[in-house]
Specification:
193 residues; mainly beta; Immunoglobulin-like; 2 domains; seven-stranded mixed sheet; five-stranded antiparallel sheet; elongated
Length: 193
């Protein structure tokens, strides 16, 4: 029984450590990761840097590569794409991308049932070849909102926010009257109270 629990825990840990935002191409040994600091991630924060990492073991050092970042969407004919350049060093490629999101007329970031949270994947182009595509990262943002009433800051004031994906966040303003919510889905926010 104890061995079975250890085996299950080891399996869960392996899935957590190696399955998060990783694509490993079969046969080529390529590995594509989104990283925040030194950790793999499946979340990207708007206007913050995220690291793009690729292990390309069969590509010569010094090879120039183009990294293509593509918005994942089912609603747009021409999804947004961004490009970065880098160089292979010790069989690896690293690049920083300042996460951005450009809203266009086809975007629905409101409270509708068909809300589609922005997300991105990337691939690496080198020597006329293209790598596998990474797993997606979903786009989030941080919210800072000050509550005042007739020039008076509302400290410790309860609030409830409806987020773009239909979920809710509740809390109280801090001593400066600020609502601070971290990692909320990008899109419309409505204060319910």
């Amino acid at each position: 029984m104890k061995a079975k629990k250890i085996c299950i825990l080891a399996s869960i840990l392996a899935i957590f450590l190696f399955g998060c935002a990783t694509t490993k191409a079969t046969g080529t040994g390529e590995t594509l990761l989104w990283k925040s600091g030194l950790r793999q991630t499946d979340k990207a924060l708007l206007n913050k840097d995220i690291t793009i990492f690729a292990r390309l073991p069969n590509v010569a050092d010094g090879t120039k590569v183009k990294i293509t970042i593509i918005e994942m969407t089912t609603k747009k004919e021409n999804p947004l794409a961004y490009e970065l350049e880098s160089t292979v060093k010790h069989g690896k490629v690293k690049a920083l991308w300042r996460v951005k999101y450009d809203v266009d007329d086809d975007t629905n970031l409101g409270f509708a049932e068909n809300y589609e949270q922005p997300s991105y994947v990337f691939c690496v182009n080198y020597d006329g070849k293209t790598s596998e595509v990474s797993k997606p990262v979903k786009l989030f943002c941080d919210l800072y909102m000050k509550l005042e009433f007739r020039g008076r800051v509302l400290k410790g004031y309860p609030y409830c926010l409806k987020l773009a994906d239909g979920s809710y966040r509740k809390g109280e303003t801090n001593k400066n009257g600020l609502i601070i919510e971290k990692e909320i889905p990008v899109g419309a926010v409505r204060r319910v109270y």
